[in-house]
Specification:
Elements (H helix, E strand, L loop, with lengths): L1 H9 L4 H5 L14 H8 L6 H9 L15 H15 L3 H10 L24 E4 L2 E4 L21 H12 L6 H7 L13 E5 L2 E10 L2 E7 L6 E6 L1 E2 L5 H17 L15 H11 L1
Parallel strand pairs: 1-7
Antiparallel strand pairs: 1-2, 3-4, 4-5, 5-6
Helix pairs in contact: 4-5, 9-10
Length: 282
Amino acid sequence: MAATTRSVEAEALPFLSITNFTRVGSRRNFTDDEDFLLAVLEGRFFTPARLVEVANSHPPVSPPGVRYFYANTNYVVAGLVVEAVTGTSLELQVQKRLIEPLRLRATTFPTLGGPMATPYAHGYVFAEGQLFDATTPYPHWPSWLWAAGNMVSNASDLATFYQALLGGQLLPADLLTAMKTLAPGSNYGLGLAAEALPCGTVWGHIGGIPGYRSVAGASEDGTRAVVMLVNITPVPEPADEALTTALVAAACAALGREPVPASQPAPGTSGETTERVLVGRW
C-alpha cells in the first residue's frame, strides 16, 4: 500500500482527476488482465496494492490528460488515498459515512475474503448455452474489486443512497456540483454519470461483475429513484432489449415524463442518441 501511495504522490495528481478518469485515465483496467481473471476464478485473494500492480504491469492506454478512459483501477487508487488520509480502513469509512447514517441495512463492504453473507441472490453467467452459478465456487467474491465494486446491497438501499446523495444529504452543495461536472468528451463526473434518456436526465451509475448487473440513479433533485438489478450476465437477447426498454420507461415515470418513442428524437438530441440509450448503454 505504501508503494502505491508514493506512486500517486510522485505523479502529483489532483485527487479529483482520479475519479473523473482524465489525468490518470491512461491507467489500464486491472479487470482486463486475463491472468488476473483466471486467478480470481481459482480463488486467489488480491490486496488493493496488488490490483494497482496488475494494472501498471501493462502499458498505459494513452499519455495522462489526453482523453477520458474509465478504469476500475482509478477507484482502487482513490480508496488507497482515502486510507492514507484518514489513517483508517476504507471499509470503516464506508460504514461510518454511508451505511450507518443512511441505515442501509442490506448493504455491506466485505473485505475479509470470505463468502458473502446470506441470504443473497445467486448470480449466473450465461455461456455456451448454459447457466453457471458465479457465486458459490469463488471464496473471495466480490472482494477482488475492492473500492471499484465491492459493495453488496439491494434495490431499496441503492435507491436510498442515490436519493440522499442527489438530495444534498451527504455532501455540501459545492462538492455535489463537482460530482456532476462532466469530464470532457464523456457523460461522467466524479463517480456519478449523467444518463440522457429520451425524457430527461438521470444521475447515477451502472455496474457489473460476472453474474450481476446493476443500474441505479435518481432525478437531479433526488426526489425519485430508479434501480434495476439483474442476476445473469451477459443478458441474452431479446431479454436485454426488453430490460432496457422497461428501465427507460421506469426512469421516465420517476421523472414524471413519458418516454419518447425510439423512432422520434428526444428534445435537444438526435435520433441516434435516443436509439443508443434504448438498446445500448442501458
